Amino acid sequence: MKFSSSFKVGLLTLIALVLLFGVVFKVKGRTFSNAERIEVQFKDVNGMRPGAGVQMMGIRVGQVEEITPVIDGENNFVKVKFVITDPDIDIPRASLFTIQQSGLIGELFLEITPPKTRTLFIPMKSKDILYQDDPVEMKLDDKYYDVGKVKNIEVISKDAVPYNFRDSIETTYAYKIDYVVDLPGLILPEFMKGYPVYNKDTKKLRISTLDDTILPYPAQNSQYTIIEPMRIADFMEWQYKAAESLTETNRKINDLLSDEVIAELQMSVNNINSLTSQSAETIAKFDKLIDASQGDLKELMTLLDRTSNDFSKLSDNLNNIIGDKEFKTKLYSTADSLDLLSKNLNKIMDNGNAEAIAADLRVITHNVNEISTYINSMTKDDNLKKDLTATINSVNKAMSDVSTTLASLNQVTPDNKTELQQIVEDTAVTTCNLRKFSEKLNKRFLLFRLMF
Q1: CA dihedral in degrees (146, 152, 154, 160; nearest 10)?
Q2: What are residue 388's phi and psi, to 5 degrees?
Q3: What angle do CA 41, 46, 52 make, to 5 degrees?
Q4: Could you report the per-residue pLDDT of 124-139, keeping only the tens digit for each?
Q5: Could you tell me the CA-to-CA distances from 34 to 15, 19, 55, 83, 308 in Å, in that order?
Q6: Could you state, in order of their start, the residue ranges of all structural domains in the chain?
Q7: Rounded-to-integer distance, Cα 140 and Cα 188, Å
Q8: What is the pTM of this model?
């Protein structure tokens, strides 16, 4: 079968056009793959162009097709659409998307990093049992959210735990828990801590930062975590701000550490050294003083021990005396008797008859003393002395009876007012008789004075 020249020319032209369109689409970043197109949003692509490569863990797996800026008021962004040309590649949820550069002046490309597996260690306790695929939760804002799942659990010895986690393990063995965080937009610190929690029938691994800082819930609509690129200009600006802050800090330090301040600091150091030296000498002298006074101190301690023992014995004796029921009874009885005697004496002394009785007794005593004195000085008759002595004895007996009567008054209770009044009246009569007897004695004494 022969083809005409026209047919051959047309076929070559068609092939050339297909090749031309293929080269154009290749240059512009379009491919003929039937794979799904993925779209992500960046605030800034830092000069990346369509046709840039898409890499995952350093391997090229796709190509950027379109880069379109979107102006929407304050919400401006760049829409990046790319395709994965390798059909065996599946991008995990919450993978990191970053714009990287190959070398210092190389081309820019889109890097995809799957979520990394994190590890933490918890003490091995009987109830702290977790299993593979158990949820991982974390407090974001003011609520707990499921942010991942447990990938693997392994029991290891405490000695195998890394040094920076070993202080938190109190048991001999520990759980090594591998987990993955798959919440898009959540960026966690390198090191975390956690412990098991039980919600009804569900066991979860609750994680938090080492300083218990509560992170915000990520405000991101994409199922991937987008890391914005950093321009050289932004980096240099941050470095300039850091240098400016460092310059200001150095200036303040130089102001604080002036020559006068340094001189004062040196003087303070010298004074501290001198004080330290003097303190050492004082302590040495004090040690010598203690060594020299050791005997006196021991004697003083012995005396203090004896004094303490004596006080203990005195306290025991007082406790025994105070605790004696018979002693308490006698003490209360004595106090009651004294109180009753005081009341009775007050009643007698408040009575007008008691004052008269006391006056009469004083007169009687004075007369008897005068009689005795004159008899002893003026007469030498033994019989007369005997009679006078007998008379005086009678008077003394009468006074004794009066005293007995007064003593009995002390024992009378306030209820016996009638008896008390009778005794007072009898005492007044007796006193009157004694007064008459005293007057008679005075007359006889006058007769004796005239006879002798």
Answers
A1: -80
A2: -65, -40
A3: 75
A4: 876 667 888 999 999 9
A5: 22, 19, 19, 9, 103
A6: 5-113, 117-219, 341-451
A7: 12
A8: 0.48
